[in-house]
């Protein structure tokens, strides 16, 4: 409801609310970020600490043109819990993804006023390695 400049928001008990984001470190541990402990993980100071690797990425346009890019990967895990029951671990939803940053635009809109994709994320399956997720994305996703 908009009462002038005031907003009221009513959360349902089962609506999900963000609890934490964790980034995989090079030593195999996780760097956690939560509501009271926010970190800007895209700052340069985190690059030597957070696990990241660069892989070649190939995207084929509908016209047949092949785009060869370099993809910088990071592994990120996010957790959400029910708004009214954050203390209850049974209500949590956890997603592990790869965070991808390309060295140049990728996709059908590359070079246009709208532009191509410079970065994205993709869900990892259980037991899957980051490079395997990237290769699966290469086959499945159309940008």
Distance between the termini: 36 Å
Tally of DSSP helical segments: 1
The ordered H/E elements are: EEEEEEEEH
User: How much of the residues is beta strand, in percent?
Assistant: 35-45%
Mean pLDDT comes to 90
Shape: globular
User: Could you give the count of β-strands?
Assistant: 8
Helix content: under 10%
The value of Rg in angstroms is 19 Å
Class of secondary structure makeup: mainly beta
Please tell me the total number of domains: 1
Largest sheet, strands/sense/barrel = 6 strands, antiparallel
Low-confidence stretches: none
Textual characterization of the structure:
This protein has one helix at residues 130-140; strands at 2-3, 6-7, 16-24, 30-34, 53-60, 66-82, 93-106, 117-123. The chain has one domain. The mean pLDDT is 90. The chain has 1 helix and 8 strands. Strands 3, 4, 5, 6, 7 and 8 form a 6-stranded antiparallel sheet that branches. It is mainly beta and 143 residues long.
Question: Which key terms come to mind for this protein?
Answer:
143 residues, six-stranded antiparallel beta sheet, 1 helix, 8 strands, two-stranded antiparallel ribbon, mainly beta
How is the secondary structure organized here?
Blueprint: E1 2-3, E2 6-7, E3 16-24, E4 30-34, E5 53-60, E6 66-82, E7 93-106, E8 117-123, H1 130-140
Antiparallel strand pairs: 1-2, 3-4, 3-6, 5-6, 6-7, 7-8
In short:
This protein has one helix at residues 130-140, and strands at 2-3, 6-7, 16-24, 30-34, 53-60, 66-82, 93-106, 117-123. By secondary structure, the chain is mainly beta.
């Amino acid at each position: 409801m908009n009462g002038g400049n005031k907003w009221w928001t009513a959360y349902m008990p089962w609506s999900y609310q963000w609890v934490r984001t964790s980034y995989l470190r090079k030593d195999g541990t996780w760097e956690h970020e939560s509501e009271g402990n926010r970190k800007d993980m895209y700052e340069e100071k985190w690059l030597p600490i957070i696990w990241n690797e660069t892989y070649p990425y190939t995207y084929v346009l509908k016209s047949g043109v092949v785009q060869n890019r370099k993809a910088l990967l990071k592994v990120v895990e996010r957790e959400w819990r029910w708004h009214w029951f954050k203390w209850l671990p049974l209500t949590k939803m956890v997603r592990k993804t790869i965070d991808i940053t390309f060295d140049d635009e990728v996709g059908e809109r590359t070079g246009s006023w709208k532009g191509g994709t410079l970065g994205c994320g993709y869900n990892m399956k259980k037991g899957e390695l980051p490079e395997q997720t990237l290769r699966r994305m290469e086959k499945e996703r159309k940008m």
